[in-house]
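Page 37, continued from 36.
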C-alpha cells in the first residue's frame, strides 16, 4: 500500500478538518496465522539477535542435555513479568541424535518442564527450529504466540542466534464502507503487535489494502488509507484493530531540494510516503526520520531513471512544529568511488555510490538495474587502446 499525501495547506501550518464527525469503528477481529519461516511469506518481519552465552543461567532449572556444550540466550518480551524467556540450545549433531531447542514456553522461569523442539533442518553452519509455541498469561486468558529460530554456528567468533516472529494476524476489515485486507506484523519480534517508536526498527507494522499489497506502514498515531488519515487502536496481542477517522490534524511543512520527487519518513505518527511539490511536503506535527528519498528523471529515449537514497536507521532525524518550516537537505550530489585490486594477472573493480548523509544509493532505469559501465584504457602514444565491459558480480 503506497501512501501518498496530497493536502492543500495555508502558509506554514495547516489544519485538516473533516465535515463529518469522527466515528470510531467497532473492534474488527483478525485471524491468527503461524508458519515455519514466516519471514519468507510475510514481508516486513524483523529479526532479534540476542546475546549467546555458554554459561548456565543462574537459578534456572535445566533439562538433561545430550551434547557436551549448550548455548543459552534470552528472548526479550514485555508479555511476561520478568521481561524475557530463557532459551537453551542443545546443538548435538552426532549420529542418532538431533539438535534440540528448549524455551520457557509457559513463563515460569524453568526449562526442566519443557519439551524439546527438534531441528527441522540442518545445513553446514545453520540449524533451523520452528514454529515454536509460547503461551502468555493475561487477564483475558492465555495468548498463543509462535517463534522461528535459526542458529548460525561456525565457531565461537561466528555464532549467532536469529529469532523471527513465526506468526501474524490477517483478515478482512471495513474502512469507510470499503472492504480491505488488514495484516498486523510484530516487526520488532517482542510478542506484541502495537509498538510505536521513533526508530522504524522498533515499531510494528500494519498493512491495509488488497490481498496482494506488500507495502506496510508503521504502527503509529496515524495510518493512511486511500489518502485519508485514521487513528488506529491495535490490540496488544494483535487480535483486533479499531480505526477512527482522524480529526483536526495539525500539519507543518518540510522543505526539501526541488529535485526530490519522493520522500519516505516515519516516526511515532506512522509512516508517510510523500510527493513534494517544488520541494515542499506536508506532515502532521511531530518527530520523524527519513527512510529514503528519490529523484526521477527522463532520458532522451523516454527511459525513467530513479536515484534512491536509503538512509541508515540512526540518520535523517527532523521535527515538524508550529514555529517554522523545517528545511532538510538530501539528494544530489552523490559521491561515486571506484576501488581496484589485482590478483595474479586479473584486476577487480568495485564501484560505490554514497550520499552526503551516508545513504546507500540505488540507481535504476525503468525499474531495473542499468547495464554495468565500460572501461576504456588508452596509453599516451595510442599503441594500446581497448574498451572492456564490466559485469556485476
Amino acid at each position: 500500500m503506497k501512501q501518498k499525501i496530497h493536502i492543500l495547506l495555508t502558509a506554514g501550518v495547516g489544519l485538516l478538518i473533516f465535515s463529518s464527525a469522527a466515528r470510531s469503528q467497532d473492534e474488527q477481529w483478525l485471524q491468527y496465522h503461524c508458519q515455519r519461516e514466516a519471514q519468507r511469506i510475510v514481508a516486513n518481519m524483523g529479526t532479534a539477535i540476542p546475546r549467546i552465552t555458554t554459561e548456565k543461567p543462574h537459578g534456572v532449572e535445566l533439562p538433561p542435555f545430550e551434547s557436551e556444550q549448550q548455548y543459552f540466550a534470552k528472548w526479550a518480551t514485555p508479555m511476561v513479568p520478568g521481561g524475557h524467556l530463557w532459551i537453551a540450545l542443545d546443538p548435538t549433531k552426532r549420529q542418532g541424535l538431533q539438535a534440540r531447542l528448549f524455551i520457557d514456553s509457559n513463563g515460569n522461569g524453568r526449562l526442566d518442564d519443557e519439551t524439546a523442539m527438534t531441528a527441522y533442518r540442518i545445513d553446514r553452519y545453520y540449524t533451523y527450529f520452528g514454529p515454536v509455541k509460547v503461551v502468555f498469561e493475561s487477564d483475558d486468558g492465555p495468548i498463543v504466540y509462535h517463534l522461528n529460530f535459526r542458529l548460525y554456528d561456525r565457531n565461537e567468533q561466528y555464532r549467532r542466534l536469529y529469532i523471527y516472529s513465526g506468526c501474524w494476524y490477517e483478515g478482512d476489515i471495513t474502512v469507510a464502507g470499503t472492504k480491505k485486507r488488514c495484516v498486523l506484523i510484530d516487526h520488532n519480534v517482542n510478542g506484541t503487535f502495537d509498538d510505536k517508536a521513533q526508530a522504524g526498527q522498533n515499531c510494528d507494522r500494519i498493512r491495509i489494502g488488497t490481498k496482494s499489497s506488500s507495502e506496510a506502514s508503521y504502527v503509529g498515531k496515524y495510518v493512511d488509507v486511500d489518502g485519508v488519515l485514521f487513528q488506529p487502536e491495535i490490540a496488544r496481542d494483535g487480535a483486533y484493530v479499531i480505526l477512527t477517522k482522524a480529526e483536526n490534524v495539525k500539519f507543518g511543512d518540510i522543505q526539501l531540494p526541488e529535485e526530490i520527487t519522493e520522500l519516505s519518513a516515519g516516526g511515532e505518527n506512522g509512516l508517510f510516503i510523500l510527493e513534494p511539490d517544488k520541494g515542499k511536503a506536508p506532515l502532521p506535527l511531530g518527530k520523524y526520520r527519513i527512510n529514503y528519498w528519490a529523484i526521477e528523471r527522463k532520458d532522451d529515449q523516454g527511459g525513467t531513471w530513479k536515484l534512491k537514497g536509503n538512509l541508515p536507521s540512526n540518520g535523517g532525524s527532523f521535527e515538524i512544529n508550529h514555529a517554522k518550516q523545517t528545511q532538510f537537505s538530501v539528494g544530489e550530489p552523490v559521491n561515486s568511488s571506484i576501488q581496484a585490486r589485482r590478483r595474479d594477472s586479473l584486476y577487480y573493480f568495485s564501484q560505490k555510490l554514497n550520499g552526503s548523509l551516508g545513504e546507500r544509493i540505488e540507481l535504476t532505469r525503468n525499474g531495473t538495474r542499468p547495464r554495468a559501465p565500460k572501461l576504456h584504457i588508452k596509453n599516451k602514444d595510442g599503441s594500446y587502446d581497448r574498451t572492456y565491459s564490466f559485469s556485476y558480480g
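Residues 301 and 365 are 11 Å apart (CA to CA). Flag for discussion at group meeting. The chain has three domains: 28-32+167-245, 46-165, 251-393.
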